Amino acid sequence: DVLLKSEIPVVPPPSKSYVLGFSQLGSESTWREANTSSIVEAAEEAGISLMMRNAEQSQKKQFEAIRFFIRNNVDVIAIAPVVQYGWEPILKEVKQAGIPVIILDRSVNVKDSSLYVTFIGSDFYEEGVKAAKYMLDKMRHRTGTVKIAELQGTVGSTPSIDRGRGFRETIGTAPDFQVSLSQVADFTVAKGRKVMSQFLELPREEWPQVLFSHNDDMAIGAVEAIEEAGLRPGEDLVIISIDGTRRAFEQMKEGKINAVVECNPLLGPLLMQATNEIMAGRTLPKQMVPEEDIFTQEIASDEVEKRKY
Ligand code: AHR
């Protein structure tokens, strides 16, 4: 069962302070920085003592952090998993230690869902669907084949897998749309720029008319590469990305990005609330999804100042 954020009852903070061990996957993007800050601030506000480790994109480091939390006998462990697979054995270790687990941001692919209490994070498949729907509408008057370039995030990560799938399955029935270029760019500005400039070194007839970027940072890097190639981002190429950072909104306002699908990183308050509820012995829904939107160029000027990250 899925519960929207607005439907989750607000519970008063408990009198006892708990220790939350949190394995953050890295610091690759603006989204991630906002996510980390949100968790640090919310823990402080809730009076929860936070033990946080940054895994710098390494699943092995996440395992080490989790074993460190077990040794330190924390009350709850939260994990933002870098990749989707390989979690079953470590989650069994945590279960044996009797510590409840919250999966945050990226989901895990495990057969036994009792290995974690709840998952708090976005519906990445739906984000890919929203991006594709926008593109189909925006390009509806185009004739001939529309070539699409895709910048993928971290290999094996849930957002990259699900956004790509949601996007492809939505354009699946539209024969004139073709993902002709697709490369991994690790969710970073530098890689987005590098991969996009490689795309634009191809013969002109292979250049894409659309760029679908799995996050804003890669799209921002790609905008630089597109400008360097003498093209106009947002005009010669329709650009759609995911996250909704302030920087991406500024570029939308300037007409360089056409649409941004929101992915909310401000999960700290919900994580602390879930921690308190678990410790109070309450049952939580298996999945909690923040409310999210899609924003287009037309409304970017009105929205940019409201962005919190
Ligand atoms: O898991 C969420 C994704 O990870 C965000 O879209 C991206 O910016 C981040 O690095």
From TrEMBL:
Record flagged with keyword Signal: yes
Pfam family, one: Peripla_BP_4
Keywords, alphabetical: Signal
Superkingdom classification of source: Bacteria
Entry's Gene Ontology cellular component terms: cell envelope
Repeat listed as a keyword: no
InterPro entries found in the cross-reference section: Peripla_BP_I, SBP_2_dom
Domain Periplasmic binding protein residue range list: 22-274
Annotated signal peptide: none
Gene Ontology MF terms in the entry: carbohydrate binding
Subcellular location: Cell envelope
Assigned protein family: Belongs to the bacterial solute-binding protein 2 family.
Record protein name field: LacI family transcriptional regulator
Species of provenance: Paenibacillus albidus
